[in-house]
Amino acid sequence: MKLDELLGLASQLNLDNILVKPEEVILTMEDMGDLKNTFPIPDCSNCEEKCCPRGVAVSLFDVARFTEIDLDQFLAGVFKGYVELFFAENGGKDVDLSRPYMAGADTKAKDCVFLDEEGKCSIYENRPFICRSYPVAIRLDENRNKIAIWMGGCKKYKISDDAEAFQRLFLSAVQDYNEKVTGNSLLMYSRNRLRELNYGKYMEDDWDIMIDYDKRNKELHKEVNDLKETVDRLRMPQDYNATVQRLQDDNEWLKERLINLEKEMIQQSKRSHSVISDLTTQISSEYRKLLENIVQLQTQNRENKSFWRK
């Protein structure tokens, strides 16, 4: 399980139309600097907020990075809901997605497993991009515009002219968004290949999902067929008297046809009996002639033998 293998697999997908380019993003951080010369920068050194809780979800690419540096033992959970997302017809609005998350053995812990005794990140250089970009995140608004927002959980920040620091936050947010979109696509369209690359233990079992989907699909088809039958009944002619009369006429025609068929069968039976009788008579006559010829031949044979004895 290597990051470069995952990147190679992702390169086979045509995702240019859904990935975010930095120049397309609209900054929506009103009253937090002019966003040209001054920018909001998290002030973590003087913050008492708990921004690093247990269970922060990671992307498929983060899983690959954690595996390469032997930190995958601190990952729990699986990527769930992506098969349903593949089959969803409403854009997946009702699909409940979940991802692996960072966690230790202590299930009661409230803080991230990688926080040290001083409350600092022990894997700072290898932290996931969701951590690198926080509190900046990329979202799509109701008009499908790509916007950058400031997460409400971060209340301790300062307005600074450190454009480079803000740019790191912003670009990390863009990369985090793109990696999640790419990972989602791989989990929908390249599941078999991901299993070949040993990502199977981080993926839910497809078989049970497919059985459940097939069951729901059959139930849906039944509902559709029932609805069609109801609509067809509602579309029946409203002149029921005419319909009943037509059915009665059809019934009379069927009765008459049945009577005629019975007559034809009786006549056919009589014809068959007549033919069989004629054939029987003919065969009997031929059989008698054959016996007479045999007797005549036997008589001639005896006479010839008597002649030659004399």
Keywords:
single chain, 310 residues, mainly alpha, three-stranded mixed β-sheet, 52% helix
Structural overview:
The chain has 310 residues and is mainly alpha-helical. It folds into two domains: 3-204, no CATH class; 252-310. Helix content is 52%, strand content 8%. It is built from eight helices and seven strands; from the N terminus they run αββαβαβαβββαααα. A three-stranded mixed sheet has the order 1-6-5, covered by helices on one side. It has a two-stranded antiparallel sheet with strand order 2-7. A two-stranded antiparallel sheet has the order 3-4. It is elongated. The model has no long low-confidence stretch (mean pLDDT 83).
Identify the overall geometry.
Answer: elongated
Low-confidence stretches: none
Beta content comes to 5-15%
Task: Give a short account of the largest sheet.
Answer: 3 strands, mixed
